[in-house]
């Protein structure tokens, strides 16, 4: 068993006019007991809790990877290809993004209104 220090803070948040709507709090620290190994953690907290926590963290990691890909214009199929074989605890390999393909993917997935905006933006930039 080992001690683990966890630190957290609430950052200051301002509204659109610059008025503080949340004052900064902390950072505060707490100390908790945890296992030195996965086996010890299972003994301390139970297999179900350790598995549930690992899965929850894995989901957050994958969602972050998916959001980054989506911002680059990756399609659902491209995300599946890139992340479908991902392994927990192993960093996903970065991908080079073709900006033209990214824009085309964004266009294909956009609403008709957004597509009109995108076309107008392209026409405007082409005219310059």
Task: Walk me through the structure.
- It is a single chain.
- With 128 residues, the protein is an alpha+beta fold.
- The protein has three domains: 1-13 and 20-45, no CATH class; 47-85; 97-128, no CATH class.
- It has helices spanning 38-45, 47-71, 76-83, 99-109, 112-127, and strands at residues 2-10, 13-14, 20-22, 25-34.
- The chain has a two-stranded antiparallel ribbon with strand order 1-4. A two-stranded antiparallel sheet has the order 2-3.
- α1 (38-45) crosses α2.
- The longest helix has 25 residues, at 47-71.
- It is flat.
- The termini are far apart.
Lateral strand order in the biggest sheet? 1-4
Instruction: Work out the helicity level.
Output: 40-55%
How many individual domains? 3
Gyration radius, in Å = 22 Å
Secondary structural class = alpha+beta
**Helix and strand string, N-terminal first?**
EEEEHHHHH
Number of strands: 4
Tell me the strand percentage band. Answer: 15-25%
Number of helices: 5
Mean pLDDT: 89
Distance between the termini: 66 Å
Oligomer: single chain
Estimate the global geometry from the Cα principal axes: flat
What low-confidence regions span 5 or more consecutive residues with pLDDT below 50?
A: none
Topology of helices and strands:
Blueprint: E1 2-10, E2 13-14, E3 20-22, E4 25-34, H1 38-45, H2 47-71, H3 76-83, H4 99-109, H5 112-127
Antiparallel strand pairs: 1-4, 2-3
Helix pairs in contact: 1-2
What are the defining features of this structure?
two-stranded antiparallel sheet, alpha+beta, single chain, flat, 5 helices, 19% strand, 4 strands, two-stranded antiparallel ribbon, 128 residues
């Amino acid at each position: 068993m080992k001690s683990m220090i966890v630190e957290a803070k609430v950052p200051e948040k301002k509204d659109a006019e610059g008025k503080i709507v949340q004052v900064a709090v902390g950072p505060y620290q707490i100390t908790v007991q945890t296992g030195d190994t996965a086996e010890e953690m299972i003994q301390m907290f139970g297999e179900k809790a350790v598995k549930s926590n690992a899965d929850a963290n894995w989901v957050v990691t994958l969602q972050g990877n998916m959001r980054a890909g989506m911002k680059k214009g990756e399609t659902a199929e491209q995300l599946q290809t890139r992340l479908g074989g991902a392994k927990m605890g192993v960093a996903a390999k970065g991908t080079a993004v073709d900006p033209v393909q990214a824009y085309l993917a964004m266009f294909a997935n956009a609403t008709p209104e957004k597509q009109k905006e995108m076309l107008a933006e392209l026409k405007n930039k082409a005219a310059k």
